[in-house]
Design goal:
Umud Fragment, subunit A; elongated; ten-stranded mixed β-sheet; alpha+beta; two-stranded antiparallel sheet
Length: 202
């Protein structure tokens, strides 16, 4: 374990500040933010503290990346959003649970417990700029507003990504693809509402 007991008072304060930013905001502070917070005028003064924390095994830093400070004591398996499986943007598929995680720390607060990610399979949502192979970030909730893009689960344990339209005696799961028809179901459960899309450059 890192020797945190060997820190100076200021090093310990800087470490706690970094840890708080990473846990509550999702990414580490910049050198300037640290300097402003502790009234350290010189960037070199901040760097001395960061180098000391790195040497003592409390943080790791990526070269040439301003916010790439990570906690060495945070296991990599706990970083990022849980990848809860793949969701069909097309025909319905059985929902699959996964235990992987994906890290979108520059875009989303990874520490939030109400967010999870899904890999998209299919092209029924392409007119909503959601394509096969994209990742969607979903906020967990059990209800949705008419027209929201949701991850919905049917009574047959099948999950799909569609726009949500509750109707009188049924639910219309509407694709965002003019060549595809809606799916009508008697019952469906909202698992969450899409709050972001991440596309990998291929």
């Amino acid at each position: 374990m890192p020797a945190s007991e060997n820190l100076t008072k200021r090093q310990h304060q800087v470490y706690l500040f970094i840890r708080d930013k990473i846990r509550h905001r999702g990414y580490g502070p910049t050198v300037r933010e640290i300097g402003d917070h502790f009234k350290i005028r010189s960037p070199n003064g901040v760097m001395c503290h960061l180098k000391a924390l790195e040497k003592k095994g409390l943080i790791v830093r990526e070269p040439n990346m301003s916010r790439a400070i990570q906690l060495a004591t945070e296991p990599a398996s706990q970083r990022g959003l849980p990848l809860s499986g793949r969701v069909a943007a097309g025909v319905l598929h059985e929902a699959v649970e996964q235990t992987e995680r994906v890290d979108f720390e520059e875009l989303f607060d990874n520490s939030r417990k109400d967010l999870f990610a899904l890999a998209v399979k299919g092209d029924s949502m392409i007119d909503a700029q959601i394509a096969d192979g994209d990742y969607i970030v979903v906020r967990k909730q059990k209800s949705a507003t008419k027209g929201d893009i949701v991850v919905a689960m049917t009574d047959d344990n099948e999950a799909t990504l569609k726009r949500w339209y509750p109707e009188r005696n049924r639910i219309r799961l509407e694709p965002a693809n003019s060549s595809m028809k809606p799916i009508y179901v008697k019952n469906a459960q909202v698992l969450g509402v899409v709050v972001g899309v991440v596309r990998q450059v291929r």
